[in-house]
Amino acid sequence: MLSVGIIGLGAIGRLLVEELGHTGTANVRAALVREGFEGPSPRGVPTVHSVEELLALRPSIILEAAGQGAVREHGAPILGHGTDLMVISSGALADDGVHEQLVAAARRGDSRMLLPVGAIAGIDGLVALRASGLTRVRYTSVKPPAAWLGTAAEELVDLAGMSEPAVFFDGSAREAARSFPKNANLAATVALAGLGLDDTQVSLIADPSADGNYGRIEAEGAAGTLSVQAQGPAADANPKTSTVTAFSMIASLQSLQATLVLPA
Length: 264
What we know:
The chain is an alpha/beta fold. It folds into two domains: about 130 residues, 3-Layer(aba) Sandwich (Rossmann fold); about 110 residues, 2-Layer Sandwich (Dihydrodipicolinate Reductase, domain 2). It is built from eight helices and 13 strands. The strands form three sheets. Strands 3-2-1-4-5-6 form a six-stranded parallel sheet, sandwiched between helices. The protein has a five-stranded mixed sheet with strand order 8-9-7-10-11. Strands 12-13 form a two-stranded antiparallel ribbon. A hairpin with a 2-residue loop joins β10 and β11. α3 packs parallel to α4.
């Protein structure tokens, strides 16, 4: 059984601890949380306040579930130590300097940075189309207005008073990941699997009729086209992220230990 460490005990981190314990997929050694963290730790998992303490417990892999800032702060020390890191806040890689730093650390530590699929489908098909020659990729994210509160969307649309869907951002995946770091990490994942951060187009939409979070990939290439949409409920404690995100990370962990390996 894999031993894992987790960065963050927010909505995704807590769900990871609960489900990993329930499924027996991995043994959670500890969770890295900020100083002053309050509240019971799920399943009694120990908490630590530094990446050095977490690494001292010798987890096989560390799962990041704390946002782009955690990737920037802890990614290089983890990878350089020789420990694999699963990154869900992939938007941090929209910063070329961070991207290069993490790749260099992984090479130095002979470790890997793993990007799970997250709350979307079709990444495997997108990667296949990339191998044959992609010509166009668009990622569209639709969420209820409440999911965009506390973001730059508040300055672009009337989230409280809107009665119909509004596209408040249309641009590159790099711009989306930088401007909406808590909502648009999937834009970066799609871009890294396809045409890249600057050539992948992204639309972000607030929709008062949405009953969950929606993500859609549309792609064209020499070997065919792809159109796929995923829909699911937001995490109970955080409307900005989808519940299925944690299960995507768990599926990726299961693939690492599987004899028959399917895309995850």
